[in-house]
Structure formats: C-alpha cells, structure tokens
Amino acid sequence: MNLPNIQANNIQSFLNKKEIILETIAQIQKDFAMFGVEVHFSGNTDEAYDELHHQLVDQVGFLLENKTELLMSVLYQVDISRKDIEKTHAEFPEYNEVELIAHQIIFRDLKKVLLRRYFKSK
C-alpha cells in the first residue's frame, strides 16, 4: 500500500501489514454500505491504496454531482470535516477536491483501525 508522502511518516510501519490493510478496507466498505454504496476490493493488498483511491474518487465524484446530501452523510459517518479536507489540500496541492476527499476517507478509516487496535491491546 503506497500512501503519498503526507502522514506516511507516522503510519508507514503499519501499512505493510496485510491485516491492517484488510481491516481498513472493511471499515471503508462498512461506512459506505450504511448508505447503500458499494466499495469493492480485488484482494491485492500491494495495490490497495491506489485501487481504493481510484474507486473512491469515482464514488465521491458521483455523489458530489448527484447526491450531495448522501456524500455529506458519508463524510459525517467517516468523521471528515471541511477543515480536514482543507488541511489535506495544503499537503496535496496537485489533488482536486474529489481526490482529496477520497484520500481523507482512506486515511481516516486507517486511523480508526489503528486506534481500535491500540485500545484493544491496552
């Protein structure tokens, strides 16, 4: 799983663990499924970020153009604010708004998985 260079410094060691990647994907699928939106995964953990990012760009783009309220509900569920998106934009100026949102979804759900694992271990 290759993340762009932003927060990768803090979480890079976790990204090579297949089970973390799979849990993150399951979390993304769960968050979207609550709103009737399917996210598929081929099973190739080596390309997981690129595969999910591309798919989420398509999903988010469609929702942004056609079902904005549904997109806002998904972002609320995932816990992404306008401030998060703006911060990510400063770190990824080459990304458009949809790409930024897709990245934030992956990153935020990865953080959820890591936090859940951290507190389970305590």
Short summary of the structure?
The protein has 122 residues and is an all-alpha fold. It has six helices and no strands.
Describe this structure in words.
There is one protein chain. By secondary structure, this protein is mainly α. It has one domain (8-121). 73% of the residues lie in helices and 0% in strands. It has six helices and no strands. α2 crosses α6 (97-121), α3 crosses α4 (68-78) and α5 (82-91) packs across α6 (97-121). The longest helix has 25 residues, at 97-121. It is globular and about 40 Å long.
Provide key terms for this protein.
about 120 residues; mainly alpha; about 0% strand; globular; disordered N terminus
Secondary-structure blueprint:
Blueprint: H1 8-15, H2 18-33, H3 48-66, H4 68-78, H5 82-91, H6 97-121
Helix pairs in contact: 2-6, 3-4, 3-6, 5-6
Number of strands: 0
* Strand-pairing-aware structural class: mainly alpha
**Element-level helix/strand string:** HHHHHH
Largest sheet report: none
Strand content: under 5%
- The residue ranges in which pLDDT falls below 50 over 5 or more consecutive positions are 1-9
Please identify the oligomeric state: single chain
Fraction of residues in helices?
over 70%
The overall pLDDT average reads: 85
The end-to-end span amounts to: 27 Å
What sort of overall outline do the alpha carbons produce when their principal axes are compared? Answer: globular
What number of structural domains do the residues give? Answer: 1
Whole-angstrom Rg: 14 Å
Number of helices: 6
